[in-house]
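Students often ask why inverse folding is considered easier than folding. One informal answer: many sequences map to the same fold, so there is more than one right answer. In these notes we will look at a single instance of the problem. The structure comes first.
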């Protein structure tokens, strides 16, 4: 796989240029360095924000909504035409199995298609008011939006965030993660090819504490969207607060699936396991807790353990069930968490294939049974291929455990009882609840975001357009 662009460049105001310093590009499947990427600094962020402001004052700022939509549609078409290339790049950069990277490329195209169609469909209202007035509302872009994205799903998270922001007419400054920025740079090339005006999208890779901090605290930014860790999310909200700027934070979770006594286990099983090990568990909406009615606890643990025993872990391009995790540091964190497992709790471990490169960041998937709901393994995000299984006695007990963490991103409910489905959907503290499925195939149409430490604000779906716009009320007194 060769890149068709120079990964050491940043995109500012339609021009690609090199930064003074670079960062190493590491292949998680081998641990080897295979290139360099740009190391953007505060001065690059200053230039990117200035370029975005210039774009808003130029053709981009005056472009009708339907023309913005056309550009997004063209971006989507080019992404689909190059989906295999993009998937190969993402698989190598992130270490994810090719089939997952292919799905991510298609999802990025779907975001472009969805927001292409939505761009000219968010309307204001007229408001009945006093005699002599006409009052209406306008939906306007914030202006310059900052987007700080992580390494786990670069294409998908870029798609949902930048796609919606551009549809509303904002000018974006994107700071991809230092661990995986290659498809973001490819997206920049594709957007140019599709006719996106200079400065409407600026891309500055670099370190979080350098380029990221400069972007989130920049006085020229009007909105910040962030996906990543709780700690950095809090820093970003604090930085934005100093400029009185709104933020959207998506900070992961400890999302449960609840398996009731009447669950259809044949249907549930693939979801129960895949939701925990997909992308090596490095998924904000990973289901890392499986709560099971005590009458079926042993059966669920046995059947999940059987699946775990068959899971194969290996290099991204071998396209097995699970790839490496992103870095040696993340592997250390995950293994440190797994070392906390109480004696006898390991119900199953998958296998790293024998020919996996020794330098790769592989973690054997681990199923832990009968973990106390208060244990760290049942409370903290592991962000690796591991799940805990916890028994419950009745519906109230299940809800208490499910809602008993600091997070609230998504939840899944497995029951054939319609009344219980509806009650659980209401009682679970989460931004999305899935009934007899998990993840809803990633649907780009579905508003997504958390409560509690999972963050606030909504991305995806039509709802994201409200977040990436601001309402103006016009009251005309004409007598
Ligand atoms: P992180 O939160 O440090 O990184 C995410 C993004 O924030 C990256 O682009 C990074 O460069 C940027 N960033 C880091 N420090 C910053 C700062 N001071 N100011 C502005 N931007 C900054 O996450 P990291 O270290 O990669 O992963 C640590 C943990 O975070 C994971 O184990 C996982 O629990 C969680 N995480 C959750 C994600 C999600 O999808 N919700 C994605 C990535 C990480
Ligand atoms: Mg970090």
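Output (designed amino acids):
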């Amino acid at each position: 796989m060769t890149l068709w662009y120079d990964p050491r460049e940043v995109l500012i105001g339609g021009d690609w240029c090199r930064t003074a310093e670079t960062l190493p590009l590491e292949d998680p499947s081998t641990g080897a360095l295979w290139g360099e990427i740009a190391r953007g600094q505060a001065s690059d962020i200053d230039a990117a924000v200035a370029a975005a402001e210039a774009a808003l004052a130029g053709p981009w700022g005056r472009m009708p909504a339907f023309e913005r939509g056309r550009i997004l549609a063209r971006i989507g078409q080019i992404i689909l035409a190059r989906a295999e290339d993009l998937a190969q790049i993402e698989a190598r950069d992130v270490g994810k199995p090719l089939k997952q990277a292919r799905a991510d490329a298609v999802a990025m195209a779907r975001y472009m298609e969805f927001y292409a169609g939505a761009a000219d469909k968010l309307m204001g209202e007229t408001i009945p008011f006093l005699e002599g007035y006409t009052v209406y509302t306008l939906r306007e872009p914030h202006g310059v939006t900052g987007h700080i994205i992580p390494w786990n799903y670069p294409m998908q998270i870029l798609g949902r965030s930048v796609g919606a922001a551009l549809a509303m007419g904002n000018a974006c400054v994107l700071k991809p993660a230092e661990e995986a920025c290659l498809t973001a740079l490819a997206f920049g090339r594709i957007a140019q090819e599709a006719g996106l005006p200079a400065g409407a999208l600026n891309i500055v890779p670099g370190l979080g504490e350098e380029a990221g901090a400069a972007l989130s605290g920049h006085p020229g930014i009007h909105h910040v969207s962030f996906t990543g860790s709780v700690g950095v999310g809090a820093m970003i909200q604090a930085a934005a607060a100093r400029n009185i700027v709104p933020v959207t934070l998506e900070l992961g979770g400890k999302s449960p699936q609840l398996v009731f006594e009447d669950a259809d286990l044949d249907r549930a099983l693939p979801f129960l396991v895949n939701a925990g090990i997909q992308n090596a568990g490095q998924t904000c909406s990973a289901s890392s807790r499986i709560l099971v009615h005590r009458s079926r606890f042993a059966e669920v643990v046995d059947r999940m353990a059987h699946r775990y025993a068959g899971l194969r872990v290996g290099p991204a391009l071998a396209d097995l069930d699970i790839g490496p995790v992103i870095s040696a540091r993340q592997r250390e964190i995950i293994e440190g968490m797994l070392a906390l497992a109480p004696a006898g709790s390991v119900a199953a471990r998958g296998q790293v294939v024998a020919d996996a490169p020794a330098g790769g960041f592989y973690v054997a998937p681990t199923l832990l049974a009968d973990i106390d709901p208060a244990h760290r393994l049942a409370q903290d995000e592991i962000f690796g291929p591991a799940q805990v299984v916890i028994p419950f006695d009745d519906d109230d007990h299940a809800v208490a455990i499910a809602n008993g963490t600091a997070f609230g991103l998504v939840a899944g409910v497995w029951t054939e009882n319609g009344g219980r489905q509806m009650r659980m959907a209401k009682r679970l503290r989460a931004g999305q609840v899935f009934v007899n499925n998990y993840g809803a195939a990633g649907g780009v149409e579905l508003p997504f975001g958390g409560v509690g430490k999972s963050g606030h604000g909504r991305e995806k779906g039509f709802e994201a357009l409200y977040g990436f716009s601001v309402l103006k009320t016009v009251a005309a007194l004409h007598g």
